[in-house]
Amino acid sequence: MASDVQPTPVFAKPVTLREVAALSGVSVATASKALNGQGRMTAETRERIRETAQRLGFRPNSLAQSLLRRRSFTVGLLTNDTYGRFSLPVMSGISDALVDKGVSVFLCNVEDDQRLGQLHVDAMLDKRVDGIIATGKRIDRHLPVDLSNLGVPVIYAFTQPDPGAVAFVSDDAGGARLAVEHFWRLGRRRIAHVTGPASFAVVHARAQAYRDVLTEKGLPVMEPSLGSWSEAWGHEAVKKLFDGPKLFNGKGEKPDAVFCGNDQIARGVIDALRERGLGVPDDVGVIGFDNWQIVAEATRPPLTSVDMNLTALGREAGLTLLSLVGGEPAEPGIRKLPCRLVVRQSCGRPPGG
Amino acid sequence: MASDVQPTPVFAKPVTLREVAALSGVSVATASKALNGQGRMTAETRERIRETAQRLGFRPNSLAQSLLRRRSFTVGLLTNDTYGRFSLPVMSGISDALVDKGVSVFLCNVEDDQRLGQLHVDAMLDKRVDGIIATGKRIDRHLPVDLSNLGVPVIYAFTQPDPGAVAFVSDDAGGARLAVEHFWRLGRRRIAHVTGPASFAVVHARAQAYRDVLTEKGLPVMEPSLGSWSEAWGHEAVKKLFDGPKLFNGKGEKPDAVFCGNDQIARGVIDALRERGLGVPDDVGVIGFDNWQIVAEATRPPLTSVDMNLTALGREAGLTLLSLVGGEPAEPGIRKLPCRLVVRQSCGRPPGG
DNA sequence: CCTCTCTGAGAAAACCTTTTCCCAGCTGGC
DNA sequence: GCCAGCTGGGAAAAGGTTTTCTCAGAGAGG
Fold first, then answer.
1. Tens digits of per-residue pLDDT, A250-286?
2. Which residue in A94, B193, B286, B341 could disulfide with A318, CB within 3.0 to 4.6 Å?
């Protein structure tokens, strides 16, 4: 019974500046200045105070500092994608960028619940966050909260911004160009595109870039195949692509490359190609999107994929928020950050290679 | 140039209790008491102050409250698994449990970097967090920080605790029993186990439970196949299991069920079985572990899997931390929380069903 | 010897809220 | 008329730090 229960540990009370001052035989004002390198005093006094603080393990109370400075050195991170793989790297980038500046991040998962969103925003505002970053699972969807006129700066990262706000998103069109141009350099000439549902803005951005590159190179353009973001759709799309009537050049030629809208589709495509005896990358090259490592590396052969550099995006968002907090102006608008192509083995080597 | 740049917005200064009091024609003391339902005053006065506060949009400054109450209503969440899929649900559960109590969560990703860990812990302590929750990607590995004698309560969730601490982990043995007993109820009698590397504690816990159940039921025990956590190992294991010399009953019988250590292995097993013409679940049933939805639902047929209830685990950890912060004692030790079996289609129906 | 300037350090206000006294005025009882 | 007790509300301290202002003393210049 009671004997099983550990007595509540008594947690040591943190040591205050007043105690440091008393033990150093000076006033709190002098102690404060000594530790902050401010004011004038003999080097000996300063050193003595420093040593006392060190010995006592003094750490200034951030709460008191924040109250005075009207700056809490915290920011709020709002997301509706706690489980997803997109906002995670973004969050990590933000946190990394800020921890070095002594800024901590409140994690707020609002799901898609307006009430929860308001709850979190109110809590953040009460705690006097210096700023807020909004992130999410889709670039073309709003968080379920109104972040305008909050009284603190707001940055949007990988989610739909309010008009007039500062936002960072991935350059999906640029990423798609990277993939298609890579195929072209490799000598592929009949490039198909299998992607997600039309309800996603990125689907259109990537598809348009795909068409643009093909047109620029004078290659035949095949209308992109829209479906779901699943492996199953990748399977099905291969069937349509290789059995159906939609063929290149009107000569019945089959694709020699498939650019996929995400890695799961790509995986379905690769599996389906293998099942029908087509070699990847020898007969058909495949490139995915998202560079979801655990999927890209589990495909056989490992998947070349477009990486959206989400960690860098988060870092950029964090640093920009900080400069906004510091009072520097920032031009509103959407900044697109470049993607990069991670080459593995599913797209083959150049003809001469 | 400069005309492109938005002028720095002037952020409204938050309204203070002093202003509310002045506009209500009372002292700050009275205003405070009116808003907190404390003290004595006419109902009319109280209501007038409330209305003024409402009209001005007054929100008490948490920093000042915290300073006074010596309680910040924040907790720190330490993790070394920002990218992983295990600590995410845990984090979500923690955050959910705490937001309703007005407690916000500092997200601190320490990777496996001792310096970063110390940086985050110091920042949290400076900001006077009420407590700390440590979580990670493995139940049998320590975070790269020392959390003993911090002066605040600490709870461990899904990571290796310090001795004498309060910790929550999943009941891996129980989860494994769930899977094997489910096979047994379904009439499967030759149950194999394919799992991860011996360096993981959970591998042994699950394997022992597997042996225990088989022994209890009087079924033949086959030594578990240890490998990596990958699809590739699932493939390979099927080859060994169905071609190799290790067979049930010494009569050359093949397994009619495979319990896998995670969902990726299970996926590899299912694919390999299909490739050799064995039907799932008709010829062989398969159960995975982790219930990683995106994988479990992409297998064909969809995968039955053991769910570790990580969100519930996080919630429990959050609530326990709060009670510790409130001064209630808690018995130290490791609490194992039950798993649950999510039945999909990879294990078949009972003989009579 | 007087005044000016500089040096080292302290007092006090400020940040914002909560809480503990305290007080003035009024009512009621005798 | 006097006292006890109650009522409505205020003053002030507390929480921990930073910063501005002030001040005493010492040294220097005339």
1. 566 889 999 999 999 999 999 999 999 999 999 999 9
2. A94
The CA-atom distances, in angstroms, between A266 and each of A305, B100, B208 are 9, 42, 38
B109 to A120: CB separation less than 8 angstroms, yes or no: no
What is the per-residue burial (b if ≥16 Cβ within 10 Å, else e) of A306-344? bbbbbbbbbbbbbbbbbebbeeeebebeebbbebebbeb
How far are the Cα atoms of A62, A336, B28 from residue B53, in angstroms, in the given order? 28, 43, 12
The structure tokens listed for A45 are: 């006094």
pLDDT category at A93 given cuts 50, 70, 90 is very high
Angle at B320 between CA B316 and CA B325, to 5 degrees: 150
Residue type, A348: G
Q: Which amino acid is at B21?
A: A
Count CB neighbours of A352 within 10 A: 5
Alpha-carbon distance A305 to A346, whole Å?
Answer: 9
Q: Is B11 helix (H, G, I), strand (E, B) or coil?
A: coil
A-to-B residue pairs, Cβ atoms closer than 8 angstroms: 156
pLDDT value of position B353 = 47
Q: Which residues of A touch B14 (CB under 8 A)?
A: 128, 151
> Tokens representing B119?
């940086």
**H or E, element range at A317:** helix A310-325
- Look at residue A254 and give its three-state secondary structure: coil
DSSP A312: H
CB A313 within 8 A of CB A168: yes
In chain B, positions 87-106, which contact chain A (CB-CB < 8 Å)?
Answer: 88-89, 91-92, 95-96, 99-100, 102, 104-106
DSSP A191-252: EEEEE--TTSHHHHHHHHHHHHHHHHHTPPP---EE--SSHHHHHHHHHHHHHSS--BTTTT
| Contact list, B66 vs chain A (CB under 8 Å) | 63
Residue B335 backbone dihedrals phi, psi, to 5 degrees: -100, 125
| Helix or strand run (H / E) with residue A107 | strand A104-109
- Angle B310-325/B87-99 helices, nearest 10 degrees? 40
Contact (CB, 8 A) for A90 and A313: yes
On whether the CB atoms of residues B306 and B170 are closer than 8 A, the answer is: no
CA-CA-CA-CA torsion for B173, B175, B176, B180, nearest 10 degrees?
Answer: 140
Q: Among all residues of chain A, which has the CA nearest to that of B77?
A: A107
- pTM for the whole structure: 0.90
Residue in the block written with tokens 């067979």: B247
* Residue B288, beta-bridge partner list: B305
Beta strand spans in chain B (E): 74-79, 104-109, 131-135, 154-157, 166-170, 191-195, 225-226, 257-260, 285-289, 304-307, 333-337, 340-342
Measured to protein CB atoms, the chain C nucleotides within 7 Å are 7-12, 14-21
Residue B203 in contact with residue B195, Cβ under 8 Å? yes
Token pair 């059995």 is found at A243
* DSSP conformation letters of B68-99: HHT--SEEEEEES-SS-SSHHHHHHHHHHHHH
SS3 sequence of A45-102: HHHHHHHHHHHHCCCCCHHHHHHHHCCCCEEEEEECCCCCCCHHHHHHHHHHHHHCCC
Sign of the torsion angle spanned by Cα atoms B137, A311, B75, B319: negative
**CA–CA gap between residue B233 and residue B226 (Å, rounded):** 9
Q: Look up tokens 């005309």; give the residue.
A: B3
pLDDT at site B244: 72
Distance CA A195, CA A182 (A): 18
Span B294-302, mean pLDDT?
A: 91
| Cβ atoms of A309 and A157 closer than 8 Å | no
Residue A88: predicted pLDDT? 84
Residue B104 pairs with which residues in a beta bridge? B74
